[in-house]
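Researcher: Next entry in the queue.
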Amino acid sequence: MTDRKTLKLREPSEVDGAPAVRKKGRGWEISESRLDALHERAREMRRNPTPAQQALADALGDVETGGFAFKRQHVIGSAIVDFACKPLMLVIELDGDEDAAFAADRDRSLAEVGYRVDRLSASAVLADPAAAAARVSAIMRERWNERRPRTQTNRSGPRRPRG
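Model: Structure for this entry, 163 residues:
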């Protein structure tokens, strides 16, 4: 007789392609003191938002977000992002007067861990917060369609009623 294959669980370190989680900085290789400083800075930024951030936060309260919520000034790795929706892995950044090369590098590092980064102009948000919130809602629907599990639509034969 032939040997039957049995299922075995491998140790997490043996899984191919999965990076090992580091013990410091919640897996981001950031020192605890640096992480604490980032969280303190984010807390301060939440207490004192820019006018554009406040306008978008207020407008997002009036628009349908499908039950998903945004966290303002959220720490992801070593970055503090303006708005983050963790279940959708979506980041909304309001462009201000920051360095474009720095922003592109941060966007790339967020994309490497699975976050989609979309940027809105701060002046456009201030000019029409409702339109900016509608755009964010559309981005959320698009991201939901990208990430939701697909159901199998190819069934053999007609469905039988239960009961």
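Model: Helices lie at 32-47, 51-60, 100-112, 122-127, 129-147.
Researcher: Noted, moving on.
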